[in-house]
Design goal:
This protein is mainly α. Helix 1 runs antiparallel to helix 2 and helix 4 packs antiparallel against helix 12. InterPro entries: TDE1/TMS (IPR005016). It comes from Urochloa decumbens. Pfam families: Serinc.
Length: 415
């Protein structure tokens, strides 16, 4: 128990103190970013525990409850999963509490935006308590996290599509030649990057003298998808644009790279196997950065009533609303008797963070079992390979669907 207390004070205390110092300054307008900061703190805490917590966990009897002590890698992944579980419970509880909120007169609206000292305390206590639960609970959570991570990847793809479409629309609406040139430059750069990157992947992951048909299939499929995006987007009957197609192409090439670089270091077709430790760490950091950015973007985009984060009761004021809109500045403005509708779904907002907590755990543990004794590298293994390549294909399918859906269902509004 002394070790558990030491672990809590040494790790959760640092993040808690940093968050508490700014809690009094959180307003309705910045509450969403404060949740992002709390999530980022959990990522940092997970990473630190993965690197340094194994010696402490060795001395906790209900964690090291084995006749033969597992390797340090097992304790590292176990620590990550426990922090992730505490973070998941925090956001999942809030997601359940916020179900059914329609206007700012609801008492729970204040719970969502205020009380940050209490929230940070609850968050820290939940994480500490997770180091007191038996290993079977962590094993069950690990299995559930793989499904939750898949859902988060879908949310991440939708966010990317939302970002590229809004980026393209904002420049097109300016109706000036310089912005049209900028769109053309971005498109050309993205496509050149896609094809150049694919060529590099052929050199790295299709070494001569080896039968690497699977890797070749992945890379060729990425190139085919890039051409398909352009063809569909430029079709006369499709209301598409070439710039979003080019950005999605680059993202698919990136997913193909992360998938191939996650192949085991002893796989003969992994041309980077001599540097798999470094590649794994760089891919991990980039993956964590992508996760944080997607969560932050989902938080700020939640203020726009044009996104799927918005409930039906939110005001439909168009795409030109600011990301952190004025509708969050207060409740009344002289009309206290008229309840103002909330501008986004609080439940879905917290659900994104809960799913992101699961995904971050899988990212830090390489999607492998905590009982495995062979997981020495982060984010490496055939499970990771297939998860990421499937994410690429789902991204492609969703993007093409956004282009052809208005043709298939002309009576429905997809704006």
């Amino acid at each position: 128990m002394w070790c558990a207390s030491c672990l809590a004070s040494a790790c959760a205390g640092c993040a808690c103190n940093l968050c508490t110092s700014a809690a009094s300054a959180v307003t309705r307008r910045s509450a969403r970013l404060a949740y992002c900061g709390l999530f980022a703190a959990s990522l940092i805490l997970s990473f630190l525990l993965r690197q340094f917590a194994a010696p402490l966990l060795h001395h906790i009897p209900w964690i090291n409850a084995f006749e033969h002590t597992p390797p340090d890698e097992w304790f590292q992944m176990n620590a990550v999963l426990r922090v992730s579980l505490g973070n998941f419970l925090f956001f999942a509880i809030f997601a359940i509490m916020m179900i059914g909120i329609k206007d700012q007169n609801d008492r729970r609206d204040a719970w969502h935006h205020g009380g940050w000292i209490a929230k940070i305390a609850v968050w820290a206590v939940l994480i500490v308590l997770m180091f007191c639960v038996p290993n079977i609970v962590i094993t069950i959570y690990e299995v559930l996290s793989k499904f939750g991570s898949g859902l988060f990847l879908l949310v991440q793809v939708v966010m990317l599509l939302d970002f590229t479409n809004n980026w393209n629309d904002s420049w097109v609406e300016k109706d000036e030649q310089k912005w049209e040139i900028a769109l053309l430059v971005v498109t050309v750069v993205c496509y050149l990057s896609t094809f150049a990157f694919s060529g590099v992947l052929f050199m790295w992951f299709n070494p001569s003298g080896h039968d690497c048909g699977l890797n070749v299939f992945f890379i060729v499929m990425t190139l085919i998808l890039a051409f398909a995006f352009a063809i569909v987007a430029l079709h006369p009957q499709v209301n598409g644009s070439i710039m979003p197609a080019s950005v999605i192409s680059v993202y698919c090439a990136y997913l193909c790279y992360t998938s191939l670089s996650s192949e085991p270091d002893d796989y003969e077709c992994n041309g980077l196997h001599m540097h798999s430790k470094q590649v794994s760490m760089s891919a991990l950091i980039l993956g964590m950065l992508t996760t944080v950015l997607s969560v932050v973007y989902s938080a700020v985009r939640a203020g726009s009533s044009t996104t799927f984060l918005s409930p039906p009761s939110s005001p439909r004021s168009g795409a030109k609303n600011p990301l952190l809109g004025d509708e969050e500045t207060g409740k009344g403005d002289g009309k206290e008797s008229e309840p103002r509708p909330v501008s986004y779904s609080y439940t879905f907002f917290h659900l994104i963070f809960a799913l992101a907590s699961m995904y971050s755990a899988m990212l830090l543990t390489g999607w492998t079992s905590a009982m495995s004794e062979k997981s020495e590298l982060m984010d490496v293994g055939w499970t990771t390979v297939w998860v990421r390549i499937c994410t690429e294909w789902v991204t492609a399918a969703l993007y093409i669907w956004t282009l052809i859906a208005p043709l298939l269902f002309p009576d429905r509004d997809f704006s």
